[in-house]
Structure formats: structure tokens, C-alpha cells
Amino acid sequence: MNRPPAEFGRIPPDPLRTFGTQCLERAGMLADHAEQLARLLVDSDLRGVRSHGTRCLPGYCGSISSRSVNPRPEFRVLKETDVAIHIDGDGSLGYAPMMMATDAAIAKARVKGVGVGAVCNIGHYGSAGHYVRRAMDEGCTAFSVQGAFPQYYRSNQDKRAAHYGNPPICFGLPSETEPPLVLDAATCILADYQRGEEFEALEEMIPAALFKSMGYTAIGTLLGGAFVGMAAQLSREVETRWKGSRNGGLIWVMDIGLFAPAEEFRQGVDEMVRLAREELIPLRGYDEATLPGAVEQRFEEEYSRDGIKLATEHIRSLVELGQELDVPVPWSQ
Length: 333
Description:
Elements: E1 8-11, H1 13-27, H2 31-46, H3 57-65, E2 76-80, E3 84-92, H4 95-112, E4 114-122, H5 129-137, E5 140-148, E6 168-173, E7 181-186, H6 197-200, H7 202-205, H8 207-223, H9 233-241, E8 247-255, H10 262-279, H11 294-306, E9 308-311, H12 312-325
Parallel strand pairs: 3-4
Antiparallel strand pairs: 1-9, 2-3, 4-8, 5-6, 5-8, 6-7
């Protein structure tokens, strides 16, 4: 999914942000939330994370206009300490309340060394990397995950154990001169589209990997679900009104200078990234061995300069969305 498309057009990021903002506002989202969400979706496109970029716009606009999620939420701080904050997202999409929790956790980590932000009663919060990268920009390392209750999918009845669930998850560690180490992924080693006999054969070939995948999913689902309050009666009541808000989110933020000098830590990340590139034999079919975060940095540099590669069908879906919402497409077709 996140490989560059074979058939594509290049769209500059600025008009894409403008278009996304206008579509979300027209669907009914608050203006500041629309601007923030459009910016984050384009950020994903810039990094080549196509699965969580502007291809999500039609679905999000549909959820907002149909009132599956709350387009005009009122966030509430349920609990706050020197090192933690807990926010009720009031049935909204997860981006705005999760970024609010992230900023609060960063501020706490800058003072106390560690900060934790939790959000309940939200819809999809997109790529976990949005929140982790925000913390990295402020000289922190972070971990984020989105979960649900009582399990990630509403039902696993008759589903294969290898596809137990797939919560978004991210770890991020900032560097100095090398690309940062950013594992922005999901807990299942099989993508949602990887189904069929050839993948079922892996259950006998590499069962240990799939058992690990199930474990990661269970832990991530609980940390981003029951741990942040999604088992509470309040969450059942919110979901009754806003059907798309059965998720929660969590971020742990740590100042990179908590235990060792920040510069020393960054140099350690640099050394790890460099040694992996210089010493490892690449995976079959690949020319080099890179750690997570390196490829995304390359895409961001190229796409910021030359325009974002969007698949032809992706561009078509955006044009159709603009026609549906009466929002003009601000790029040449």
C-alpha cells in the first residue's frame, strides 16, 4: 500500500492542504480542526504513508456529514496531574483531542522528564506517527497507540487468529545528522489486504511471528482502550450517540535528556542508523538496509520539492469529493 504508485500525478502540498481544509469544513468540521487535520493528512502523503494521507478524506468527510462522529465536539479534561492528562474527545475524530493531549504531555515532559496523554471517546486518529513526531520536534522520544474496548475489531467471530487486530502504533527517537528512527506501523505483521491461501500458509511457516503479532495487538488494544477509559459506562453512552467513536488513544513522552545528555543520545541514534545501513545484508528484493524513518525522510524531501506522488485513482476520488461538496480543485488536472 505504501509503496509509490505506479500511475500517478504530482500535486503540490499547499493546494492539497487548502483543498482538504475546505472539504472538511464543508462537511461540517470546525475550522481549526479542519485545518489541522488537512495538514496532518498531507504530512502523511509527504512521507509516502499513502494509507493514512488524503486518501482518507472522502471517508472522514462522510463520517462527519453523516454524524457518525461529532463534528463540533467540546473536549473535557477528566483528570490532570504533574505528569499526565486525560481528555474526553466527545465523540470526535481522534486527531484534534489526541494532539491536544500530546502537546500537554510534551509540556509535562519538559518539566518532569516524562509526560503521558490519554484520550477516550474518539474515532480514528490516523497514523500514530503524527503525535510521536510532534514530540520529537520538541526534543523528546515518544510512543503512541490507538485501541478500543473490548477488542480492536467489533467482532472477531470466525476470523483467523493471524488477523486478530491491527492498532496503529509508533515509536520515535530523534537523531542528529542521520534520519530519525521512527517505527510508524500497526501491530499485525499482515496488512489488512493480505488475505488468502498464500498468507494462511505463513501460519505453519512462521507461527512465532504471528503469535508475537497477536500479543502486540492485545497489548496495544488494551493500552489505547481500557487503560484510557474505554471500558467505562461514559464511553458506552458516547458511542450510542456517535457510532464512530469507540476508540481511545495514548501517548508516552520522555525528554531525551532524562538519563543521559541529549546530544549523546542523538549521536547514539545516528550510530545505530549508520551501522545498520553499512553492515546489514538487505532483505531480498531491496538494494539497501535502512531502519524505519529513513525512507519517509527521503520521500518528504523529494515530495516537498517536486510535488506529492498521488495515485491516479486517488486524485480521481479527490476530484469527485470536491464535486460532491462543491469545493473547487486548486491544482491543474
